[in-house]
Amino acid sequence: MEDCTLEWRVRAIRGATTASENTEEAIREAVMELLDELEGHNQIDRDEMISAIFTTTPDLDAIFPAAIARERPHWDNVALLDVQQMHVEGSLPRCIRCLIHINTPVSQLEIYHPYLRHAKNLRPDWTLAQVSGKVSPAVKSGRR
User: Fold this and answer.
1) Which of 2, 36, 74, 85 is the most exposed place for a label (fewest CB within 10 A)?
2) pTM
3) C-alpha angle 90/29/126, rounded to 5°?
4) What is the three-class DSSP state of 12?
5) Distance separating alpha carbons of residues 39 and 22, to the nearest angstrom
C-alpha cells in the first residue's frame, strides 16, 4: 500500500508591487492588493504562515507595510519585519517587496509569486509564464 502522507516543508513566497505615491493610503492600497493576490492564488491557510519580511525603497516612508499586514485577519501571530531596500541607481521607485514563509505540502514549483503594477518588470519571466498559462497545475485548478 502506498504511503499517502504529504511531506510538509517551509516554503518561501516572493512578491512585489509599487505604490503610486508616498502616502499611507497609496502604500496601504498596494500592500493589501499584493497580499490579497498572494493569499488568493496560493490559498494560504493563515495558521500555516511563519513570517513575512517587507522591504521598501527609500522613497517610501509614510507607513510600515508590516503594520498594514498586521491589520489583516489572522496576521496578528505572524512574525513581521520591515526593512529598507538598498538604493541602486536606476532601480524601480516606490517598490514594496515581500518574502513570506509558510508551512505547506505544496512543492516550490506550485507556488505563485505575484509581481504587480510596475514590479511586473522585475520578473518578466514569471509574468509571461503566468499569462501564457505555464503556471503550475495547482494554481490553474484553484488548489494551492
Assistant:
1) 2
2) 0.82
3) 55
4) strand
5) 25
Q: Return the ∠ at Cα 88 (arms to 60 and 108), rounded to 5°.
A: 80
Yes or no: say if 126 and 113 are a contact pair by the CB < 8 Å rule: yes
Give me 11's grid cell. Answer: 516554503
For residue 144, is it within any domain?
no
In a domain, 85, yes or no: yes
- The pLDDT tens digits of the residues spanning 37-57 come to 999 998 888 889 999 999 999
Q: What angle do CA 30, 39, 77 make, to 5 degrees?
A: 95
In a domain, residue 45? The reply is yes
Residue 53: beta bridge partners?
81, 99
Q: How far apart are the first and last CA of the chain?
A: 26
Show the cell assigned to 115.
509581481
